[in-house]
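Please, is this right?
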Amino acid sequence: MKKVQCIIVGSGLAGISIAWELFLRKVSFIIISSPPLSHASLIAPGVWNPIVFKRIVPTWNASELIKSLLPFYSRIEKILKKQLIYPLKIWHAINNTEEEKLWKQKQVLYPRFLKDIFCLSKENYPYLKENIKCGEVNDAGRLNISEYIFYSIELFKSINAYAENYFNYDALITDTDQIIYDNILAEKVVFCEGYLVKTNPFFNFVKLKPAKGELIEIECQHPILPENSILHRQINIIPTGNKKYIIGSNYEWQQLDEQATTLTKDKFLLTFKQLFHTRYQLIGHYAGIRPASDRRPILGNHHKHNNIYIFNGLGTKGVMLAPYCTKILSDNILHNRPIENSLNVSRFFI
């Protein structure tokens, strides 16, 4: 029988990130996952953005999240010997004088993140259709999530810490001291299943607000933006290198499937063509379901089974939230340190 300290169920952003936190703490684990079940992490653009544009304010706990983010992913880059993180500036289009006034007011309050308004000009970027007034956001960037997950799984496979299999909840045997599952003896199990938590009999009381998102990927004839920038105007236009760009994303609350739709693709391309005049080729169109909750991640143990845990609800800010949350959850699992109420799964207990 294989003995580990922790079983991790799921290999999306949450599952891989908690695995790395345990790996770095020299805690034994095995990931059990069936990757085809959900594609949300694999197709996510991986952008971290410290600003909520709707109100032009920092996202929840932005400074602490960024403080955790860079050392965490940088350490993994060194182990994997792969570049995964790309610091970027986000250029947010300013659409009217009221928004410009608001930006300048908020810039006084949040000078770390909000930089000066400038003109994104046709003179410097000749494939723009018109000059665009933009506010610049600092301390942003992108994690290549698909490579982060792929190369992490390859490493975990090499140390016999990854098994590709459907998880059978009925086969899980638990008591106060141990977990037994399919010839594995463990102390704890952590479920990191995204929106599929709805099928988990231990945590089906958790109320997610899943949202479908779509992205397209294009290759342009000419470079249209610097590779260290993102243009945000209704949609994000994200350079990924070699004249390739990710465009998206959207929120669909009703049609919760992972099927890419022509309607959304056409909408993205129309917006792109309103901004730029250049030839391009569509090279990808993806869809996934984000496990959003009540705007906060979901961490902690089951109210009846102290050795069964959940890590979920990362949503659109997942790249920023994951390193911060993995530390909190690992401290709770290993040292019984408390999890604040706003993050604790106990907020869903009946």
About this structure: The mean pLDDT is 92. The chain is about 25% helix and 30% strand.
